[in-house]
Amino acid sequence: MLEKYTVLDLETTGLNREKDQITEIAALKLEGNRIVAKFETLVNPKIKIPAEITQLTGITNSMVKDMPTIDQVLPNFLSFIKDDILVAHNAIFDIGFLNVNFSKHFQNSLPNKNICTMNLARKIVPTIPSYRLSSLCNYFDIKNDCAHRAMSDVYATTKLFTKFQAIMHNNGLKKDQAILDFYKDPLAKLNLSLNHLI
Questions:
Q1: 134-158 tens-digit pLDDT
Q2: pTM for the complete prediction?
Q3: Domains of the chain: which residue ranges?
Q4: pLDDT, greater one: 123 or 127
Q5: Distances in whole angstroms, Cα of residue 114 to Cα of each of 37, 68, 120, 196
Q6: % of residues, the chain, pLDDT over 70
Q7: Which residue blocks in 35-81 are alpha helix, DSSP H?
Q8: How many C-alpha atoms does 81 have within 13 Å on its Cβ side?
Q9: pLDDT tops 60 at residue 197
Q10: Closest CA to 83 of 155, 4, 14, 162
């Protein structure tokens, strides 16, 4: 089990990290399975949020108009995560957006190691048909009552990662480096059936 890590999620105005903007950041800092701190803020994207994104996330232009901009948020977020391993579902999306903004505003990028629960799911349950967060929540009986809001997705991802850590622990992967080595190894799989996961 990881000693300390931060689970994070973003909401954005769209999928293109070069032109779309972050509208919400949420994160939970954990030590083992214990939540020790929380970070959550809406972000003023300085562009109009498309109607279809508002319909998906519930985040409106009026909700973000008086919120801090991303260049104001990122220093606080960096202080929050410190050198933690970062955990996210579809991490290439979230960390990609963060790095574009760190590069634009501060000429650097996140040095933190990261684990994507979508990719980890492919190693632990490689036969299921979908690795979307909603599909994995259904598969593992995890409630996510406010999907597509950052903190709700963070809690769902945290519960999913907790299940994955228990599975890895039961298969001999107990220390940070063993978990990271398993995650990085392109050939490593546990290939467990659902009966083994309950």
A1: 999 999 999 999 999 999 999 999 9
A2: 0.94
A3: 4-197
A4: 123
A5: 19, 26, 11, 26
A6: 96
A7: 51-57, 61-64, 70-81
A8: 26
A9: no
A10: 4
Identify the H or E element spanning 104. helix 91-106
Report residue 97 as tokens: 């957006």
Res 198 pLDDT > 80:
no
Which CATH superfamily includes the segment(s) 4-197? Ribonuclease H-like superfamily/Ribonuclease H (3.30.420.10)
Cβ-Cβ contacts under 8 Å for 40 (sequence gap 6 or more): 24, 25, 26, 27, 150, 151
Torsion angles phi and psi, residue 108, rounded to 5: -150, -175
What is the rounded distance in angstroms from the CA atom of residue 42 to the CA atom of residue 72?
Answer: 12
Residues forming beta bridges with residue 86, ordered by sequence position:
6, 114
Catalytic residue, chosen from 89, 105, 148, 196, is: 148
Summarised one tens digit per residue, pLDDT across range 18-41 is 999 999 999 999 998 899 999 999
Q: 7 with 30: CB under 8 angstroms?
A: yes
Q: What is the pLDDT of residue 127?
A: 87
Return d(Cα 57, Cα 42) in angstroms, integer: 12
First vs last C-alpha separation in the chain: 18
DSSP 142-170: ---TTTTSHHHHHHHHHHHHHHHHHHHHH
Whether 148 is catalytic is yes
